[in-house]
Specification:
The chain is mostly helical and 100 residues long. The protein is built from 5 helices and no strands. The longest helix is centred in the middle third of the chain and has 27 residues. The N and C termini lie far apart (48 Å).
Length: 100
């Protein structure tokens, strides 16, 4: 259990490196004006480190008493780690198809 928590939390910390770059570029979403989609993307991006911190604390506190709940809580930030690159890849592929 302990190794599982450590491995995934190292992955989450490593994911903060590209997160910083993406977050630094995110104000460009508003170049064409403020939209609900732009605001949603900003909120989702900025909530990642908060989710990592909160889920890590909860997972470590639950690791002895409720192991399954601890694992599930620890996997919540994985949604960001998978979803954001997938969305960026999907957008890039859509742009490539529409140009070509």
């Amino acid at each position: 259990m302990r190794v599982f928590l450590i491995v995934f939390q190292v992955i989450y910390v490593l994911a903060l490196i590209p997160w910083l770059l993406v977050t630094a570029m995110s104000p460009m979403l508003f170049d064409a004006g403020v939209t609900a989609v732009g605001i949603s993307v900003i909120v989702i991006l900025l909530s990642y480190p908060i989710a990592v911190l909160i889920c890590s604390i909860i997972a470590w506190r639950l690791r002895r008493r409720r192991k399954l709940v601890s694992v599930l809580v620890n996997l919540i930030p994985l949604l960001w780690v998978i979803a954001i690159p997938s969305a960026m890849l999907g957008q890039a592929l859509t742009n490539a198809v529409s140009v070509g």
